[in-house]
TrEMBL record:
This is AMP-dependent synthetase/ligase domain-containing protein. GO terms for cellular component: endoplasmic reticulum; membrane. PANTHER family: AMP-BINDING DOMAIN-CONTAINING PROTEIN-RELATED (PTHR43272:SF33), LONG-CHAIN-FATTY-ACID--COA LIGASE (PTHR43272). The keyword Iron-sulfur does not apply. InterPro entries: AMP-binding_CS, AMP-dep_synth/lig_dom, ANL_N_sf. Coiled coil: none annotated.
Length: 695
């Protein structure tokens, strides 16, 4: 590759080494990584309180109160930056005080030294963010727990982190108390929901069943029997208000958050990130998105225990934006979007792909004259977009695309997506449908920064982008997978990241820390990337999940699963192989919306009149067990795999079709962040896999 060409990134001179690509930076960071702007912002504490100072009355955190009398959710109600600041100050003082109330004399000194963890356990909601802001007033740090995490992982994380205080929603209190005997560090539980409101029928104060005044009394007695203090949020705020403690601001090197990675194999790893890590990350994010105004409205619906949503939370706070929280039920997300009308939407490929399927079905894939007209409109808009003429069209938008934009929000300006690239057809169609900038980005828990991000002027899809401001990227050879930085025309290898946002260490795990912090400030991501001729970087594979087949070929199952996930019939997939076998097998969970009509149509084509009645009555589960359906799905997999350029040995030859989706709780095949737990999936489906091979 010609690194001297006019590229979209800056190539650091004389940085090419044997086995490595040159170091890549943003053009805006060509001479220095340290931003010259916002020198007075050094911690997350500074980020928040600077916004309180500059925009005290601006709406900050919003939620939708519920009215049990009408069985409806009301419009969004917001708390201002100043109001949240006052609540955070009181809550921070209250947390210190109640922790002292439930300690022996020997602990008091360590409590006042600060830098101890408090776990947060709920869906994304205003109280989570208020708690986060409260902790930093006293130099405490948070431990994020997913709302969907199972008991064994909650138990592991609370013991591993040694969190003595948990702030949680009401539905989590009994779960914690049932584990109390296995949680020796737990001293205090603070409930986000008001105990006084339980049983109230007033709008905004309603707590749904099964909780009532009597159940609260039971919980309090249960907590007392375990020597655990149980308080509600307002109570601790009032304790703090009556026992004010001056702010104890953190230093940049102090811990800000302990987030646990997904734990796809074994127990999750605890990632310790400092105030310096997240502050640097946020400033880089702001500078890289200079087109963002201070009037942005954000929707929060992803878990705040994940760095993706936490990054949005930091960005919104820094630019003094407003954050509206969803109700926590993903099936109602579009109702919440309509109520909030956000300008900024943090998307995930799974939801964006579903949006594409829904919108395209009623527009470009419609039948007859209507479909023909809509396809013409879409094609014309995409041609204009690629030609650099923007997202808007004076004719087609009023006719069609103002309506498709309104599915998310009439005010929508930006969509950010990460974790996996969107297909070009999806990427382009959604951009013209939503008349909005859609930027693909790349980051991870260990480096809480958008390490690679697409620029607004970049129109290609399937790229992660260029290094963002303040970040260095390079590739290193992975010879066992035949990815080399000498490959032509595109160097390929493992992505390494270096910047001040790289995490501090894995909590209590020096060995794993050394595996990824490889020296000289570099973090080894385990992701495989390639440098495109323009200087952008694409994510193409994953290093850690590879295995061999009997013929010695290395298999990267995630690459294959990413291909399969693009088929409209397939919702989830798990690809596996044994080193003693020469072909791959898989488990497929189909999408019932597309699979049922496809399977019935397939069977009806060769059925007699008597069989047709039976086929029409067949349910989802029966269709997944039909051998003709299975055979045809394997053929579909073969077609999409070859079209995607997979090698013959990478094509799945036999599948088991499961009507039960991979999930977090019942089969525990997914992590709380919805990643596949490959080792667990292999154990769960072992008999099935053995049978596929024997047949």
């Amino acid at each position: 590759m010609d690194y001297s060409a006019d590229l979209k990134c800056h190539v650091v001179p004389n940085s090419k080494q044997n086995g490595f690509s040159p170091i890549l930076r943003s053009h805006k960071s060509a001479t220095t990584l340290e931003p010259t702007e916002y020198k007075h912002i050094k911690t997350v504490y500074d980020i928040f309180w600077n916004s309180v100072k500059e925009a005290p009355d601006k709406p900050y955190l919003g939620h939708r109160p519920y009215n049990p009398q009408t069985n409806q959710y009301l419009p969004y109600v917001f708390q201002s930056y100043k109001q949240v600041g006052e609540r955070a100050s009181n809550l921070g003082s209250g947390i210190i005080k109640v922790r002292q109330m439930h300690s022996d004399k020997s602990e008091n000194g360590s409590i006042l030294l600060r830098n101890w963890p408090v776990a947060l356990y709920s869906i994304a909601r205003p109280e989570w963010t208020i708690s986060d802001r409260a902790l930093i007033t006293q130099s405490l740090f948070s431990v994020g727990l997913y709302d969907t995490q199972g008991q064994s992982q909650i138990e592991f994380i609370l013991n591993h982190s040694e969190a003595s205080v948990v702030i949680c929603s009401l539905d989590k209190v009994h779960k914690l108390l049932s584990m109390a005997d296995q949680l020796p560090h737990l001293k205090v539980i603070i409930c986000m929901d008001s105990f006084e409101r339980v049983g109230s029928n007033l709008p905004g104060e309603y707590i749904p069943s099964p909780f009532n005044t009597r159940s609260i009394d039971v919980l309090k007695h249960w907590a007392a029997s375990k020597s655990i203090g149980l308080y509600d949020f307002k109570e601790v705020e009032e304790i703090g208000k009556q026992n004010k403690i001056d702010h104890h601001p953190p230093k940049p090197s102090d811990n800000f958050v302990l987030l646990y990675t997904s734990g796809t194999t074994g127990n999750p790893k605890g990632v310790i990130a400092t105030h310096r890590n997240y502050t640097y990350s946020t400033i880089s994010n702001v500078l890289s998105k200079s087109h963002l105004s201070k009037n942005q409205v954000f929707m929060s619906y992803l878990p705040l225990a994940h760095c993706y949503e936490k990054g949005q939370d930091m960005l919104a706070t820094f630019i003094q934006g407003s954050i509206g929280f969803s109700r926590g039920d993903i099936t109602n997300i579009f109702d919440d979007l309509q109520a909030l009308q956000p300008t900024f939407y943090l998307g995930v490929p799974r939801i964006l792909n579903r949006l594409y399927d829904t919108i395209s079905a009623i527009t470009i894939n419609a039948s007859g004259v209507k479909g023909m007209i809509l396809r013409r409109g879409a094609n014309e808009k995409i041609e204009n977009l690629v030609a650099g003429k923007g997202y808007h069209h004076s004719i087609w938008d009023p006719l069609i695309f103002d309506k498709t934009k309104a599915i998310i929000s009439k005010r929508l300006e930006f969509i950010i997506t990460g974790s996996a690239p969107l297909e070009p057809k999806v990427y382009n169609f959604l951009r013209i449908s939503f008349q909005s900038l859609i930027l693909e980005a790349y980051g991870m828990t260990e480096v809480p920064i958008v390490s690679l991000g697409a620029r607004p002027e970049d129109l290609e899809s399937g790229i992660a982008g260029v290094p963002t401001i303040g970040v260095e990227i390079r590739l290193r050879d992975v010879p066992e997978m035949e990815y080399l930085t000498t490959d032509s025309p595109s160097p390929r290898g493992e992505i390494l990241v270096r910047c001040p946002s790289v995490f501090k260490h894995y909590h209590k795990d020096e060995e794993k820390t050394k595996e990824v912090l490889i020296g000289d400030g570099w973090y080894a991501t385990g992701d495989i990337g390639k440098i495109n001729p323009t200087g952008t970087v694409s994510i193409i594979d994953r290093k850690k999940s590879i295995f061999k087949l009997s013929q010695g070929e290395y298999i990267a199952p995630e690459k294959i699963e990413n291909v399969l996930s693009k088929h409209p019939l397939i919702m989830q997939s798990f690809v596996h192989g044994y080193p003693t076998k020469n072909f791959l097998v898989g488990v497929i969970v189909p999408d019932p919306v597309t699979f049922i009509p496809w399977a019935k149509k397939l069977l009806l084509e060769t059925a007699n009149s008597k069989e047709k009645e039976f086929i029409k009555s067949m349910g989802f589960e029966k269709l997944t067990k039909n051998q003709i359906v299975n055979k045809n799905l394997v053929e579909e997999i073969d077609i999409i795999s070859r079209d995607a350029g997979l090698n013959g040995f990478e094509i799945v030859k036999a599948v088991y079709i499961d009507h039960r989706p991979f999930d977090i709780e019942s089969n525990e095949i997914l992590t709380p962040s919805l990643k596949l737990k490959r080792f667990h999936a292999a154990k769960y489906y072992k008999d099935t896999i053995d049978k596929l091979y024997s047949e």
